[in-house]
Design brief:
Blueprint lengths: L7 E4 L3 H13 L5 E4 L8 H4 L11 H20 L21 H11 L3 H4 L10
Parallel strand pairs: 1-2
C-alpha cells in the first residue's frame, strides 16, 4: 500500500484500534485504511492483561463506545475461529473506600438503564 492510497490511519493495534478499523471496513465499506503500531497487534495490554477489559466509565457515551468495540471484537473472533483469543472474563472493581457511595453513583450513571442488570455488589470483607 502506498502512502497516498491511505484514506484513514488508525493508530494502535490493540482491541480498540482493531475494532475501529474493522468497523470502518465492514460497516462503512472503507477499504483505504491502515493500522499503525510499533509492536505486534494485540501484543501489549490487549494480550497481556488478566483477560478482562474495562467497560465501566462514568459517562454513558464512553460505556456505549467500549461495549460496541467489544461487540465488534467478538464478531471478529467468531468470523476468524477466534484467532485473536477473545475471552470474556469480566472486571472487578476494588476500592479501599469504606463508604464508596460516590464511586457507586458514577458506576450506575455509566451503565445507565442497564445498571441494575449488569452491576453485582458483594459487601463485607473476607479475611483468609
Amino acid at each position: 500500500m502506498k502512502t497516498n492510497d491511505v484514506e484513514i490511519l488508525v493508530i494502535g493495534a490493540g482491541i480498540v484500534g482493531i475494532a475501529t478499523a474493522y468497523y470502518l471496513a465492514v460497516q462503512h465499506k472503507r477499504s483505504r485504511l491502515l493500522i499503525v503500531d510499533e509492536g505486534q497487534p494485540m501484543a501489549l495490554t490487549s494480550a497481556q492483561s488478566g483477560e478482562n477489559y474495562r467497560n465501566w466509565w462514568p459517562h454513558p457515551t464512553m460505556a456505549d463506545y467500549t461495549n460496541h468495540s467489544t461487540d465488534l471484537m467478538e464478531e471478529i473472533a467468531r468470523r476468524s475461529d477466534n484467532r485473536i483469543h477473545m475471552t470474556r472474563r469480566g472486571y472487578l472493581l476494588v476500592t479501599r473506600e469504606e463508604k464508596p457511595e460516590e464511586l457507586l453513583q458514577q458506576l450506575y450513571a455509566g451503565y445507565g438503564a442497564q445498571a441494575e442488570k449488569l452491576i453485582r455488589l458483594h459487601e463485607g470483607a473476607s479475611r483468609g
